[in-house]
Amino acid sequence: MTGTATRKIIHVDMDAFFASVEQRDDPALRGRPVAVGHAAARGVVAAASYEARAFGVRSALPSVTALRRCPELLFVPPRFDVYRAVSRQIHAIFTEYTSLIQPLSLDEAYLDVTENLSGLPTAWATAKAIRARIAEVTGLNASAGISYNKFLAKLASDHRKPNGQFAVTPDMGAAWVETLPVSRFHGVGPVTAAKMKRLGIETGADLRAKEMAFLEQHFGSSAGWYHAIARGVDHRPVNPDRVRKSSGSETTFDRDLTEPAEIESGVLRMADDVWRWCERAQAFGRTVTVKVKFGDFRQITRGRSHAGAVADQPTLRQSSLDLVRSIYPPETGIRLVGVTVSNFEAPVSGNSEPLPLFGTAAGSGSEPSTAEAR
Predict the structure, then answer these.
(1) How does pLDDT run across 310-368, given as a tens digit for each residue?
(2) Beta strands, E only, 319-363
(3) What per-residue confidence (pLDDT) applies to 243?
(4) pTM of the predicted model, to two decimals?
(5) Spatial separation of the C-alpha atoms in residues 254 and 335, rounded to whole Å
(6) Which H/E stretch holds residue 137?
(7) Which residues are the active-site residues?
(8) What is the DSSP letter of 283?
(9) Are strands 47-48 and 299-305 parallel, antiparallel or unpaired?
């Protein structure tokens, strides 16, 4: 990092967090392929143990597909109260080493340990100590990536999973990035990775070889980010006060719904999930959005921005109902509904307790949105 002191960033990532908690708490599950979720026809895997991953079972995989890949797979229902409690224990451990903590989800966070509170001489030693404390307190394993910026630290944490750590030093960062597939880069999702492949970009070296004008032509406002990370550059600070832009909850029904009463019941459950978070975080937004996914997987959203914050539960419920009713009669059966609140009146800290990653409609599976894939 030219002109500034080199930062010491650690990305801590719990190993198969939800599944590992279940195996910790039930000895009968240890060493066996475990999926957190529901085995119902519309169920979705929220997390998979490493034993299950050996069969190709991954988070967000439909439960029926997971069972085809691994007939011995054991499903356990999610216990988000337990996962949140363990997450709080882990966060408390982080505070023993630094005050600069940016949580990303229940199971991962960035830590800036440039000036760590424990007095350990290196970021490597600090990461090792943090992982040991997590194992001591929770009985769970964590992996860690250490580097001079967030982008590289996150990449590094995947490099020695499970239960390991890896460091990317300033003198190796740019060259190391060139060896990696772009599909591993933060900010390059499956759609973008496929587009890059069509353009002849499959590795960091391929990306670095492209001129900025080329990147701007094909990737617009993201061009600057891709140009920088291809060179191992990321100046983003670890931000304990990261503003949360929205909060939402969604659920997949166990069958496609066409009856308004059933659809609206699911929407109200999701609105109530969101409201509980709003109350806990004391964060209230002006915009309500309802997401609908049909049985053929087409997806639409309907949103409404209010003059002021939606500051009570009945208003959020009514707004959500009005939005979903705007699509009646549905063109085909509905498999998923979601409710999101955004445009908060006051900044919301990234430390606020996150919403459950699953909806709670009876008999439903859910569409998870989590870092559990690692």
Answers:
(1) 989 999 999 999 999 999 999 899 999 999 999 887 544 444 444 433 333 333 333 33
(2) 334-344
(3) 65
(4) 0.74
(5) 8
(6) helix 123-138
(7) 108
(8) -
(9) unpaired
Report whether 8 contacts 146 (CB < 8 A): yes
Contacts of 148 (CB under 8 A, 6+ apart): 1, 6, 7, 8, 9, 168, 169, 170, 173
H or E stretch at 104:
strand 101-105
Two structure tokens written together for 274: 């969101």
Kindly state the tokens that stand for 268: 């109200």
**Can you read off the two tokens belonging to residue 123?**
């970021």
pLDDT tens for 102-130 read: 998 889 999 999 998 989 999 999 999 99
Residue reference for tokens 């929407």: 267
DSSP string, 249-268: EEEEEEEEE--HHHHHHHHH
Question: Each residue of 230-287: pLDDT tens digit?
Answer: 999 999 999 887 667 788 888 888 889 999 999 999 999 999 989 988 888 788 999 9
Domains observed in the chain: 17-80 (3.40.1170.60), 246-348 (3.30.1490.100)
Q: What is the per-residue pLDDT for 371?
A: 38
